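USER: Fancy drafting a protein?

ASSISTANT:
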Amino acid sequence: MRLSHKVPHGRLTAVLMVALSLALASCGSISRPDIEPAQVQASARTVLDPFRFAGNDEAAGQAFLSAWRTEREALDADGLTALAVSGGGANGAYGAGVLVGWTEAGDRPVFDLVTGVSTGALISPFAFLGPTWDHSLTAAYRDEDVSRLTSGGWGALSRPSLYSDRSLRALVGKYVDPALLRAIAAEHSKGRRLLVATTNLDAQATVLWDMGAIAAAGQAPGQEATAVALFRNVLVASASIPGVFPPVMMQLDDTGTGLAEMHVDGGVSTPFVLAPATLTLWTPEGVMRPRDLYVIINGEVEPRRALTKGATLPILMRSFDTLSKSDLRAHLIAAVAFANRNDARLRYAAIPTALGADSLAFDAESMRRLFEAGRAAGATGAAFAEIIPDVPPSPAP
């Protein structure tokens, strides 16, 4: 694939059903205190601080990386292999299939860093734990309960979304249990990291959650249930498309009675994460030097030609899809620039346009088809491609 450097930057909205929600915007709501923006203290310490940092907070990002570097040096690690898994709703079945097929191919790496956004957040724990958890990843994306995620709609009369998050929470709860957290905590102790992105609407910022740190905290006596609950909450928040599923309110104190932040789909603020936004010009060295970078995009990157119908909803949906692809391409360009600057190799996998993927098609047949297509591509080595940036020709002597 050859990307032009002239692709405009955009911001992925992830509000695919916004037109349907606008008419009912004043109906269902979440009660919140009437506080002026200046009264919200961004610097106030919270019980969540040990497990997260904002993507636009350079000092916090550097502190996370510094602590990680110290740990990796003590473990005598050498270089980083990273995987970023994007959002994409039901299209996550393709990315899950790619990982399972990659295992079958026999050359799937052990990733030092795995990050996930939205449906990629749901995939990321299994991608982090490796091939021995492929059975759980396969089960999750073939689970009949997935088809119920968008059932019982038109609830915006009583809540701020078309659908309840009851089915999403039940699905996450089925696969995220103490055993999963124990396994993640064990890998975290080896100097590996698992990060999940949500969007803090109050701060208009991407928040990166250190899921291994949450899992490790859960191994302390009496902390297991609290850690499992927070781990599940973060995954649900990252996958909560605004207007489709309700936001997740993150309590900032132990009592649950104080101020809470409103978190939604990580894809609202970023399609995928390879490095915090403030560190895109970062040049890591030594144990933090990137070697192989992979991105699984649970969606299409290439344009798909179609005649757009001249009605409000088709125009909005087509516009959001176009914005999403432009944003993905812009992030891929930034990622390949980061890789080139650090002599790393970057490869990406995306859904071929010929498959006609639909991010809201949660029916079992559509997801099975995408999963099998991803598995076939992963097993044959056809899933990943390298990005070759357009380089202006050198001036003639």
User: Anything to note?
Assistant: The chain is about 35% helix and 15% strand. Residues 1-26 have pLDDT under 50 and may be disordered. The first strand starts at residue 2 and ends at 3. The longest helix spans residues 312-341.
